[in-house]
Amino acid sequence: MENINFLKNHVMSLIEYEPELTEKIESILEILLKVEAKNLTNRKSKVHLSASAAVFKNEKCYFIRHPYLKTILLPAGHVENDEMPLDTAIREFFEETGFSAVVDKKMKNFGLIDVNVIEIPENSLKNEEEHIHIDFRYKLLLDEERERQEAELECFLLAEDEASGEFKRYYKYL
């Protein structure tokens, strides 16, 4: 991740259409200012980037059960050295669900709908210490022209009333 200024601007532009996120975004920007750009894709650093995909079908959103955290989450993963968070969201959605997704050109800011700080506990199986993810969340479109491929994880669709509170506000982007 070389372009930290792009990331900061990307996050800041979220305030324009999600003003209720201002305080959260300002705290995330403070974290980004303290981290060297090269460490944002280093899985051994205390802070690194991840990205999630909110993809809908028939007014339901795709979710996975995280194999280590044992919780229901959006398909997501770590941002790699040669990626921007949007690329990661598209790649991880494909890897974890077997479905393809594309950018929703009707959305502002490449579909960025949220940014969160997620505290990740120590994982001795992966030899990872406790750390945080700055998770970029994108609303993408299901590419229904492509056939589903083999997936890493089981995925399932949840309606708004079935999703946890953290994800309920994403349904307004249907």
From TrEMBL:
Q: Name one Pfam family in it.
A: NUDIX
Instruction: Kindly indicate whether the keyword Hydrolase belongs to this entry.
Output: yes
InterPro entries from the UniProt entry: NUDIX_hydrolase-like_dom_sf (IPR015797), NUDIX_hydrolase_CS (IPR020084), NUDIX_hydrolase_dom (IPR000086)
| SUPFAM superfamilies attached to this UniProt entry | Nudix
Q: Which keywords annotate this record?
A: Hydrolase
Q: What GO molecular functions are on record for this protein?
A: hydrolase activity
Q: Where is the Nudix hydrolase domain?
A: 46-174
Stated name of the protein: Putative DHNTP pyrophosphohydrolase
Origin species = Leptotrichia wadei
Origin organism lineage: Bacteria, Fusobacteriati, Fusobacteriota, Fusobacteriia, Fusobacteriales
